[in-house]
Amino acid sequence: MRKRGVLLCCGGLVLALGVGAAVWWNWFRAPYSLAGSPKVDVTVRAAKSEYPDVAETAEDVDTVVRVYVQRLKAGDVEGLMELAGPAYEGTRGDAYEQVREFGEGARGHVDVTVLEGDVDYFNPIRLTYDRTDQQQELLLVKDDGHWWIELGDGDPAAGM
Known about the structure:
This protein is about 40% helix and about 25% strand. By secondary structure, the protein is of the alpha+beta class.
């Protein structure tokens, strides 16, 4: 009887740990990630600044910026729409225009400079597309612990 109680206890512990790990994984994991293809050539760096948080922000936004460039390169309008912050609506038109305007540039090297933001949850970036000599400025918005691309219409500050 005692052996059965120990087994049930251990089984319950394993189940609880498994559920806890699943919740943690889904809670802290970004809602977007790089796909297996197409491969992108992106360099993300912080602008020169006296503030150390610019370098930290460059590390934080690395994934969303690479995913953005990858979806541009793939011509993935739906995928770009998924990168818009929760406060944005009507993103299809803007996503289509960005693919049309910058998709070709995303096929080459893209240099991304993270600029100084005025507040912690808004951060401008500059993308330089070497293949087409284009530059693009985007605003990144931090909401629900994740960085998003400003796309479409919305007021992310309203939810802050």
